[in-house]
Amino acid sequence: MKKNITGILYFYIHFIVEIACFFYLSRVTNGSNVVWLIPFIYDGVAFVPQSIIGYISDKYPKINMAFIGTILMIISYLIFGLTKWSVFISLIIICLGNAFLHVAGAENTLKTSGGRLSPSAIFVAGGSFGVITGKVLAMSSINPLWLLIPIMTIIPFSILADMYIEKDSNTDKFNYVRECLNPYVVILIAFLVVIARGYVGYGIPTSWNKTVIQNIIFFCTMGLGKALGGILSDKIGIRKVAVGSTLLAIPFLCCGNNLMIVSIIGVMFFSMTMSITLGILTSILKENPGLAFGITTIGLFLGTAPIFFIKLTMNINIILIIIVSIICSILLGYVLKGDEKK
Amino acid sequence: MKIIFDPRYITNNTVFWIYVVAMILIIIATVIFVIKEVGGKR
Predict the structure, then answer these.
(1) B7-33 per-position pLDDT tens digit
(2) Which pLDDT value is given to residue B1?
């Protein structure tokens, strides 16, 4: 059996997708009078339709979602770079391109993983590195059309990743959830955990984060945490990592407002559950990994949406981090099976 | 990117309301798909 590198291939694809999206977002919002609306629409149109696209991908696996996504991103950049059309046209198209490519990554890494979490965790991690690279790149005077080159490199990488999908590739080996539980309850718990942690993620006190370098360190640590969550789950057990990382993050997040090193340790632990909730949902929706992934992205959208309307004080955020983390660790410990030695 | 919320964008913006309705419809469709898939296996 050939070594599965789909996680690494989709790490690169996700990295490029987020560079393209955050370069675009940073450029269109710079000096715009609709600065609030554009990121809000981006979050919704890029995250929410992934459930529908994922469901279609589950039902019709022959549709090449990565190719559709890449074409949409290219069209969006051509409109953005060459025309004076309304920003909302290129915005909607780039969001949909992002959504198609995310679904392709989730389907591919979950189906070829043989029940392991690390490939999808490595795929998810690529996004954090891409977000900060796109933001930094947007500060330069580079013409947006140059980004078409990295976007086009997605095609050979996705073709290579597709070669790992075999006729019997599926997610049947995902069995992380206790069998006795009602599947609707499990889905609801995983969904609530994603929403809660999505919201709390924006409330992490990071007064230390002032320079570009510190921002790069912040996003890279987040990416590292996401990848480590999956890799450690495969090595030492998903339940230990889920409960342990959620609880360990609390003191570091709460005491790291002015101390970068303390804070980023907390951010790393905090990011580890990202792929774990996906593993929980895939364990229930074994025939629908695309739909399972889409549920997590809807949760992320609903979790982050309030930040566009409400701003809480740091003390309230710290209290929320403590309460939400404890509740999430209890719920994750309740839902997940005891770890077996691998 | 600095996010500046202004309530006028909500009340006067057609794009915003089309967007909100579309998001709600997609979430409802997702719930239906989940019920169909999970219910079908029980």
Answers:
(1) 656 666 777 788 889 999 999 999 999
(2) 45
- Å from B13 to nearest chain A CA? 10
Q: Measured between alpha carbons, how far is A97 from A137 in angstroms, rounded to an integer?
A: 20
Residues 6 or more apart whose Cβ sits within 8 Å of residue A57: A63, A65, A103, A104, A107, A290
Task: Verify whether the Cβ–Cβ distance B26 to A51 is below 8 Å.
Answer: yes
Which residues of chain B approach chain A closer than 8 Å at the C-beta?
1-6, 9, 13, 15-16, 19, 23, 26-27, 29-30, 33-34, 37-38, 41-42
pLDDT < 50 positions in chain A: 342
The per-residue pLDDT for A160 is 93
Contact (Cβ atoms closer than 8 angstroms) between residue B1 and residue A35: yes
Provide ipTM, 2 decimals. 0.86
**CB-count exposure of residue A89 (10 Å: 0-12, 13-18, 19+):** middle
The residue whose two tokens read 């951010």 is: A267
Among candidates A111, A283, A254, which has minimal Cα distance to A189?
Answer: A283
**Angle, in degrees to the nearest 10, between helices A65-82 and A6-29:** 20
Three-state SS for A142?
coil
Strand partners, A336: A177
d(CA A130, CA A22): 8
Q: Do A29 and B1 touch (CB under 8 A)?
A: yes
